[in-house]
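Budget justification, computational time. The allocation requested in the original proposal was used primarily to generate structure tokens for proteins on the priority list. As evidence of use, we reproduce two of the resulting records. The first is shown immediately below.
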Amino acid sequence: MVIIMNMIIKIGKKKLRIKDCKGLSSMRGLMFNKMKNIDGALIYGNSVWMPFVKHELDLLFLDKDCKIIDIQHAFPMSLKTSSWTVYVNKKAKYCLELKSGLVNAKKGMKVIII
């Protein structure tokens, strides 16, 4: 049985409901998720692949202190092999997957877990 916990985070002045993906659920992230009741997911890792993700995402790569060190825009995979991209930042400890355009985040900003 997998128990999925949600958390509230704050980026700047914006509060978001995030799926907390610990352990094996970090491999799944937002795959198969319609994102009706959440704004994104916190992945405990530094790479993201987008199979079965239906939405464009903004990926905020975070260091150990939850400070944004990189921002990448991710597109869902299609049958075109050019869409089979792995998004990576080797210096990151976490990746925050967010609905595209949800926040105006910048490198150096801190993500606060409430």
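The second record produced under the same allocation is shown here.
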Amino acid sequence: MIGRIFLFGTGVVSLLLLTLIYAMVSGQYAERQPTPEPTPSIAEPSRGSAEPSASVNPEPSPAGSGEVAMVMIENTSFGGDLTVAAGTAVQFTNGDDFAHTATDGTDGIPVADPLFDLQLAAGASDSFTFTEPGTYQVTCTLHPTMNMTITVE
């Protein structure tokens, strides 16, 4: 009798553990991250698009003009590289069902003192304004194959 109770209890615990493992592997038990508050000064729409996953102003805008370029993260990709004018805010929107980052670095590794490290929960948006001309590498620290280059003129 005690053996049957022990076997039944072991079976129930095993079933619960298998269910929890399945939920974690399938993403149903993903860690929730807070959604960043949007910045009101960059809520303007962009004026053009380069391709479906990355929107860019058709011509670089004058420095400090307050333009916004959009990067839509989809299918674990930032889309194409971007060229913007100094003073342009680049808004990253996570269109995937899981978290990403937009971080100053390459191959999932941030630089020593990153200029930006945006945490993007599923569906979240955040932005960074590029004020200095140069070439900036962007990576996702959660998905090292996600990389792009932003050139600021």
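A brief technical remark on that second record: The CA atoms of residues 81 and 121 lie 22 Å apart.
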